[in-house]
Write a structure and sequence with these properties.
heterodimer; A: mainly alpha; two-stranded antiparallel ribbon; 14 helices; B: mainly alpha; 73% helix
Amino acid sequence: MSARVSRAWAILALPVISIVLSVIVGSLVIIFSQWLVSGELQPGLAFDAYSSLVSGSIGSERAIVSTLNNTAPLLLGGLAVGLGFKAGLFNIGVQGQFLMGALGSVIVGVQLRESPPIIAIPISLIAGMIFGAVWGFIPGFLKAVSGAHEVVTTIMLNFVAIAILAAAVSGPLNVVGSASPTTLPVGNASLPVIIGRNGTIALIYAPIMAVLYGFLLFRTTRGFEIRIAGASPDAARYAGMSPRHLIIWTMAVSGMLGGMAGATDLLGQTHSMATSYATTVGFDSIAVALLGRTSPLGIVLAALLFGAMNTGASAMQIQAGVPADLVGVLQATILFFLVVSPVIKRIFRLKGAKTGLEDSATTFTATYGGEATIR
Amino acid sequence: MDQALYGIPIVGLVFEFIGYLIAIAPIIAPIVLKASVPIGFAALCGVMCERSGVVNIGIEGTMLVAAFVGWTAGVYLVPVLGSDPLPLFGATPTLLVALLLAVLSGVVVSFVHAWLSISVKADQIISGTIINIAAFGITGYLISLLSISSPEGAGQFAKITPPKELTSLPFVGWIFTTLLNQGPITISLLFCAFFLQLYLFRSRWGLRTRAVGEHPKAAETVGIDVIRLRYRNVLIGGAFAGMGGAFLSMELSNSFQAGGTAGRGFIALAAMIVGRWTPLGAFGAALLFSLFLTLGQTITFVPPSGDLGELVKALPAQVFTALPYVVTIVVLAGLIGRSTPPAADGKPYEREATA
């Protein structure tokens, strides 16, 4: 029993310490900034902010369902980034894949809005996944063929996705006569509600995707190849694997997961698309994958944490008057403390604790711009 | 002959495009140069870091912080330092101090990146990502606190007006208008890019920087302090990023918007690669990107005539918004095989154990 506890502590120690430290840093930010702006020192404000953050995210049944709804796209996005990390690829373009996925699902969903849900839902969801996969395939293909680094190409493609979305919504998808460009609602393609007021079926299939992600990585040949290629591209090559093929495959599947996240958001939450349709899931999911150390369970837990933070943020802003952007500061500080884990380990004397990110995520920078031609 | 040429639609369009470019060049040249400033400074930051072997994708966040600090410092300093303009560039004491603080904030943020990637030896892309997330969070948080009282900014740097004798010269006058009819940060970019090129390839410091970026172990054996040089270069790079950020909130406009860097720090990385890790090359690539950015905006306001104009009108406006990004991808994919990064780029340096 005690061996188990100490093993769990070895895994959890650093994330827990990071979260606690980031809460402290967040309090200091709240108190100091308020003092600078208003001239009054209000130490209680930090407590108000955190209590409204917590009650706004898990304080009521409604809040919990909202948290879960916000978690589902983050979980899928986190899996997308995590899969790339495992292969040594940094897919910073989940943002664009998310938007393309949402676009794909709204294009098909609007067409099928009067078809039976049993047909409309899966087809719209798959359309979103295909759009996302194409948006992930492009940078993967470019990297495999010309060595163009995915960090730069995926970010460029994020901007292209925003432009395509705006062109589609204000052009062919626009409802004639609407005040501002917007599409028709997806009707029968909307995800069915299964829990509470608006908890959709995504709460079931998103965790299933996490299980599949774990199965793919740890129980299949392809997953083995991905992990080898991520840990040591040279070893993968000598073992007869094709890094080029793996890069394209991984980026496409990663994009597919990102597209699924977008389709989930559109079919489950917004149901139609305006030109202002945007998301922060893309960048949040990078943090989710890092915090979850790319392991399936870790990503689920990290997505829950971030989903709860994002849900509680608006309650915090309304009730305590602390801007919702504080959540970004908290998330970044959690990651910061994880990255400096060697230093933290020394300070807190945690000898056995698993280090933060180094042991799971391989070094992406090793291939940055370099290895111009992938053999 | 003419008829035959124009019978081929593509060739006709290309000729019309070239004609259009020549026609509007004098008008858009100053705008292109202006648009290239934040990208250009950010790309110089990238060159500084990567030539010594440190990958910095946190440039975006660094610029954002600097833009915020510059603007906010102006707001808070105006009552203290006043806004009496000095003779040049419409600069006030407030603006100058605010600019200094903005540049310093860029250096401070870069120090975090330098510490994480050089001393802690964290993955440099993760470190940069953390800086970006933190910068977006903290500036967004603070600006929404500040904007409750909707403060007035401290004004912005003005451009100087070149003498009429130069600008009214036939054929070459617009070049002077482009280069000189600008604010101080824009003009300093021209100097920075030129001198950095010179220093990187013609000075002792430049030779050492390149040695550390290519083969740090060899550099160490001839007595170069690799760690110290990397720190110094990343910090100087932070100053460049700070200038780029300050440009956004103090010269281009007199305001700060949350997330106002709008991906320029990332575009700069592409410019750096396309420019083959040289200062002038990176600046040139930044100019190319800005050209397409500006064209995308101009072409809908001042459409070209003829078939090209018809084509432009038929396409949705977003095609031109996306154009610079697509061009970047195409150039990057087409060029990269021949564009080699410094060999030790992104690899933390491990000193040999002194046993």
